[in-house]
């Protein structure tokens, strides 16, 4: 149900997106530190919603659908905001484009497979991809200004975030290719079954 705590946590992750975009638009180290705190809380809900759903036996199709959507909305919205505010260093704008293209393609594939009554379960590599992306975005949200406020001025937070974003492209592309090949194989197998029934 929508009122189950795991689903509420997922909705809170989605609700954090406009708050984070507004804080990033302020262009101040203080706002960036607050944004980091909000973003960290949003990332924690990504772990908690699944863990609580499994522990309390509140697994549902609604939660299974909403969880990856919330992740994609959070990552995609923040990448767009960071790009618009020119907070993406070391040409990591292109890493963001690769990530967004992959997410749109996989989402479209999932949508088509759902219409064919087929599923495309998430993989461990895809979860690692999301984890690396979230860490990278955390560094980019805080930036060097937030690092300085926290007494970590020696830490090139923005550069680290850009490098991590590029690093996340590796599992992003590999897992995306895996989804594509698995999805096409399932679609072809489903069409073969339908053809066999018709010919019979």
Automatic annotation (TrEMBL):
- List the InterPro entries hit by this protein, alphabetically: CDP-alcohol_PTase-I, CDP-OH_P_trans, CDP-OH_PTrfase_TM_dom, CDP_ALCOHOL_P_TRANSF_CS, Phosphatidylglycerol_P_synth
Coiled coil regions, renumbered to chain: none
Q: Where does this one sit in the cell?
A: Membrane
Q: Which domain of life is it from?
A: Bacteria
Return the PROSITE patterns for the record: CDP_ALCOHOL_P_TRANSF
Its pathway, per UniProt, is: Lipid metabolism; Phospholipid metabolism; phosphatidylglycerol biosynthesis; phosphatidylglycerol from CDP-diacylglycerol: step 1/2
Which UniProt keywords are present, listed alphabetically?
Answer: Lipid biosynthesis, Lipid metabolism, Membrane, Phospholipid biosynthesis, Phospholipid metabolism, Transferase, Transmembrane, Transmembrane helix
Q: Which Pfam families match?
A: CDP-OH_P_transf
Catalytic activity reads: a CDP-1,2-diacyl-sn-glycerol + sn-glycerol 3-phosphate = a 1,2-diacyl-sn-glycero-3-phospho-(1'-sn-glycero-3'-phosphate) + CMP + H(+)
Could you say which EC number(s) this protein's record lists? 2.7.8.5
Per the UniProt record, which residue ranges are transmembrane?
31-48, 69-87, 134-157, 163-187
Q: What class of enzyme is it?
A: transferase
User: Gene3D superfamilies of this UniProt entry?
Assistant: 1.20.120.1760
Bilayer topology reads: Multi-pass membrane protein
Gene Ontology molecular function terms on file: CDP-diacylglycerol-glycerol-3-phosphate 3-phosphatidyltransferase activity
Q: What is its main location?
A: membrane
- Which protein family is named in the record? Belongs to the CDP-alcohol phosphatidyltransferase class-I family.
Protein name per UniProt: CDP-diacylglycerol--glycerol-3-phosphate 3-phosphatidyltransferase
Gene name of this polypeptide: pgsA
